[in-house]
Amino acid sequence: MDPTRFIEGIDRQLARRKVELSNLSIMVSEQNPDPHRLSCIARSAVVLAYAHWEGFVKRGSSAYVEFISSAGLKVADLKFPFQAAYVLSTFKRASGSVKTRYLGELLQEIDTRRAEVFAVSADKCIDTESNLSSSVFKEIVQGIGLDVLPFYETRSVFIDQRIVLARNQVAHGELVSFDAADVRDRIDGVRLLIDTYADQLKNAASANAYLRI
Q1: Backbone angles phi, psi at 211, to 5 degrees
Q2: Same domain for 24 and 127?
Q3: 54 and 141 in one domain?
Q4: What is d(CA 169, CA 197) in angstroms, rounded to the nearest whole number?
Q5: RiboL-PSP-HEPN domain spans which residues (predicted)?
Q6: CB-based contacts of 38: which residues, under 8 Å, 6+ apart?
Q7: Does 200 lie in the same domain as 144?
Q8: What is the pLDDT of residues 47-67, one digit of tens each?
């Protein structure tokens, strides 16, 4: 897969998600709605906003790993998070021993495997855990060799409180309510986050940012 195809795939996925988010924003903004209907739409929109947040991060990150796996690159040429994902099984086999001989064999095997062609399942690099909190998101970003942007740091509270917590409250049956302006703010925040992450992924693919310098 070349960078152009990867970027096109990211753009298609992003566009579908943003269309649904825009439709949700329109639905909660109708004039003089029935209060019970608005409550139902608003609560549903909060859950769907989270779904698009987690869904894009997970699918976009996976597509990035798949793009790199398709490039036929040597493990040693990639950034260390990718090297670690490739040799992870080797570490697991040797984790119970501290004897010098076994550690020497471990280092030798790792050195040999670093000369192989990189190809891993995306789930070795990406784990959204039970909720895509700001800390989990940062782990994913760093796990695929990217920088945690200052923007992500400034949005940590928004992610944890206004996306994740609100979704959990609704999904776990709490009778919380949200007004239209509140829901639009959450939707706009999610759109901005996934737009920013999409740009970071596309720029990384175009600039070969996965390569070890």
Answers
A1: -80, 145
A2: yes
A3: yes
A4: 26
A5: 13-203
A6: 28, 30, 180
A7: yes
A8: 999 999 999 999 999 999 999
Sign for the pseudo-dihedral over CA of 78, 80, 84, 87: positive
One domain, residues 51 and 133: yes
For residues 76 and 149, give the distance between their C-alpha atoms in angstroms, rounded to a whole number. 26
**Distance (Å, rounded) from C-alpha 188 to C-alpha 193?**
9
Query: What sign has the CA pseudo-torsion 99, 101, 104, 110?
Result: negative
pTM: 0.91
Rounded to the nearest 5 percent, the helix, strand and coil shares of the chain are 70, 0, 25
Distance, in Å, from the CA atom of 187 to the CA atom of 25, rounded to the nearest integer, reads 7
CA pair distance 120, 71, nearest whole angstrom = 12
pLDDT of residue 115: 86
Name the token pair of 72. 């036929």
Domain of residue 200, residue span? 3-72+123-206
Q: Which of 73, 75, 77 is nearest to 1 (CA)?
A: 73
User: Residue 67 has what pLDDT?
Assistant: 95
Residues of the chain whose pLDDT is less than 70?
Answer: 1, 89-103
Cβ atoms of 198 and 74 within 8 Å: the answer is no
Long-range contacts of 18-23 (CB under 8 A, 24+ apart): 18/191, 18/194, 18/195, 20/48, 20/52, 21/48, 21/49, 21/52, 21/187, 21/190, 21/191
Judge whether 51 lies within some domain: yes
